[in-house]
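Demo today. Your pick:
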Amino acid sequence: MGSDTVADVTALGLSITLALCLLMVIVPRKYALAPVLILTCFMPMAQQLVLGGLHFPMLRILMIFGWLRLLVRQELRKIEFNSIDWAVLIWLVVSVTNYSILWGTTEALVNRLGHAYNVIGTYFMFRYLIIDLEDARKIFRITALLVIPLALAMLFEYKTQRNPFAVLGSVHDITQIREGVLRCQGPFAHPILAGSFGAALFPVFFTLWRVKYGSRALLVGGMLAAVVIPVTAGSSGPLLTLLAGIAALCLWPLRKHMRLLWWGFLGGLAFLQLVMNRPVWYVIAYLSLHPGSTSWYRAAIIDQAMQHIGQWWLIGTQSTLNWGSIYGDITNGYLREGFDGGILQMALFILIIARCFRGLSLARQGIEDPTENTQFFLWGLRSCLFAHVATFFGVRYFDQNFVIWFLLLAIISSTTGAYLKKQKTVQPELPGGRATRERSEDTEFANSALSLNGKRA
């Protein structure tokens, strides 16, 4: 290889990747995302090629073949952008622009272009390949099949204190221990990221099991795996993510009163702010389920961010070490957005999440489904999204977790985007008038996007 080409990948890792690249092109569309999920679940992100100074982890190489597949198999269908898509795109533009201005170097621009490559390569590829909820259900069934061996591998690591994924390189061979607690990481960059990956999947596995879609044994296995992975990770954050997803599922009977619950939650926070000696975000400091947990730090970093907001609100900040030597590690996904690109970037990130919640709410209320099975699955997606929302208070995704995150966003966009269209508000003068027909056509179109038995590609 030339001096500008470096291979930080094992022969086994590269062979697996090339085999999955081939599969990505030749398998039927309903299985097209299986190679992506396989690589996400089992390949360390640090396995990469460096070509001309540009880093290509195995997932980035697979993305090339994914887009090649879309071109060769003529699957580049027309996508009607909705508010989720626009929010993602604008957030991405702001991210690239502000970070590049903040650092003012070519290296910073290259870094952000790599970030844009990840977002466009995954999110918009998923948007082309995912048409409706039937696709989403199949994807999560495949994911359940994959996380079972992942959980078994992490159980092996827990029992032996040896990481079996070390054979691929780029991860620790010996399992980390903190305060006597084993912290298994599998193929992920950190135990918290491994645990969060599994925990956030529990709600969708549960909803599929409850509505009896697919093999119930497989889905039970997926649920068990989604519990085993955060438990073996040995960190409070993933366990709280798991509990957040379960708590969101439990709100299903109160789904018609979510606005009241939301205002009650805000009122509770306001009350705590009045009675606590510290700001309300210090509640996070008490959310510890393991010895040696740093939940206090996660509260303190929010406090420091509020005290130094003038330093980062415009386009971010290059360093937070001047706040104190312990504040170099930003373990908060929302603040990381702000520190990288200012308060606008952070607000756009939150807007993406808000639009997803809005789309799921409108779809659940609008779809015609007497059995409520589809509505409950939409609630499972909502619970999964809420689990990620909780996760971002304790960690930012800097490994392959970005794949499962953008996959969830793309699924929500593809299946609920029709309900985010601007609705006609003018009432018809007579029953059956033009406005009524327009609303009926909008509803019919939206329901077709959620169809279970429509014509498949």
About this structure: The longest strand covers residues 5-8. Residues 197 and 401 are 6 Å apart (CA to CA). Confidence is low (pLDDT under 50) at residues 422-446, 451-457.
